[in-house]
Amino acid sequence: MATVSPYYDDLRSKPEVIDPPQNEETVDVGEHICDTAQSVLKPNVAVSSSVRELLECPVCLNAMYPPIHQCLNGHTLCSGCKPKVHNRCPSCRHELGNIRCLALEKVAASLELPCKYQSFGCMGIYPYYSKLKHESQCVFRPYNRPYAGSECLVIGDIPYLVDHLKDDHKVDMHNGSTFNHRYVKSNPHEVENATWMLTVFSCFRQYFCLHFEAFQLGMAPVYIAFLRFMGDDNEAKNYSYSLEVGGTGRKMLWQGVPRSIRDSHRKVRDSFDGLIIQRNMALFFSGGDRKELKLRITGRIWKEQ
Ligand SMILES: [Zn+2]
Ligand SMILES: [Zn+2]
Ligand SMILES: [Zn+2]
Ligand SMILES: [Zn+2]
């Protein structure tokens, strides 16, 4: 055994720290880091995707941000998962300790990646650490479906969503900035938490959607109507709308600012940002024997100067 190199001897003398399978993985990581150095000089899709894999936490699969932790064998872990693994490396079960992986943190800092909404039209390239912040505000990020009360999970840009509402949900589409809409239910006592079909209005070369639904406000059943703007919040603020409902010589009027569909339908409803009608009042407005809900809502949308 005189041929064993002093280096190999050294390895065998500390079997707890470095045993062969993990050693292999450590070497593998080293290779990836070398690739990264090249990718900074010469961008290369294959290399940057392998670096991105390196920056993926093996536990939660999210992108890792400083502090990135590692075990004695070099397995990495995100700071969110570290407290959850009871100080055991999830890859090799060795004690985790408190070692930061500065090399990987620096590699990440040197990366520049395209915004994840590139396919939606964003051409931005961002440093790894500021990419997340950009993406949370990127104007190209898709909108969630504005359709409430269904299992619809569609996302996309506004033209796509408008087509989807029209073709797949058969929503009412109206042109013009004034409207007159009827909401009828033959048994209003069965419609708590009911949502009526959305109506989409097209005016000022924009799209707005009118929601009307019943919900329980504390103990009281109420109806709420509100308008949402199909676009971003900063543009929604350029518009105002009014809603009017009444009957038998009484009427209620609401004037508001349409909310961006970035805010969920539920968020708008739960902030009561719309015309709220008590059920008793709604039945009074409906006339007749209070057995049927028959509300006529008139509205107008205008652009603020
Ligand atoms: Zn994690
Ligand atoms: Zn490990
Ligand atoms: Zn973007
Ligand atoms: Zn849908």
TrEMBL record:
Q: What class of enzyme is it?
A: transferase
Keywords of the record: Ligase, Metal-binding, Transferase, Ubl conjugation pathway, Zinc, Zinc-finger
State one Pfam family annotation: Sina_ZnF
State its Enzyme Commission number(s): 2.3.2.27
GO MF terms on file? ligase activity; ubiquitin protein ligase activity; zinc ion binding
Keyword Nucleotidyltransferase listed? The answer is no
Where would you find this protein in the cell? Cytoplasmic vesicle, Autophagosome; Endosome, Multivesicular body
Q: In which pathway does it act?
A: Protein modification; protein ubiquitination
Q: Where is the RING-type domain?
A: 57-93
Q: Where is this region: Disordered?
A: 1-23
- What top-level branch of life does the organism fall under? Eukaryota
SIAH-type domain residues are: 110-170
Name the SUPFAM superfamilies for this protein.
RING/U-box (SSF57850), TRAF domain-like (SSF49599)
Spell out the GO cellular component terms annotated for this protein, sorted alphabetically and separated by semicolons.
autophagosome; multivesicular body
According to its UniProt entry, one GO biological process term is: protein ubiquitination
Its biological purpose? E3 ubiquitin-protein ligase that mediates ubiquitination and subsequent proteasomal degradation of target proteins. E3 ubiquitin ligases accept ubiquitin from an E2 ubiquitin-conjugating enzyme in the form of a thioester and then directly transfers the ubiquitin to targeted substrates. It probably triggers the ubiquitin-mediated degradation of different substrates. Mediates the proteasomal-dependent degradation of ATG6, a component of the autophagosome complex. Requires TRAF1A/MUSE14 and TRAF1B/MUSE13 to target ATG6 for ubiquitination and subsequent regulation of autophagosome assembly.
Q: Which family does this protein fall into?
A: Belongs to the SINA (Seven in absentia) family.
What is the name of this protein? RING-type E3 ubiquitin transferase
The source organism is Fraxinus mandshurica
Traced from the root, the source organism's taxonomic lineage reads: Eukaryota, Viridiplantae, Streptophyta, Embryophyta, Tracheophyta
- This chain is encoded by the gene named SINAT5
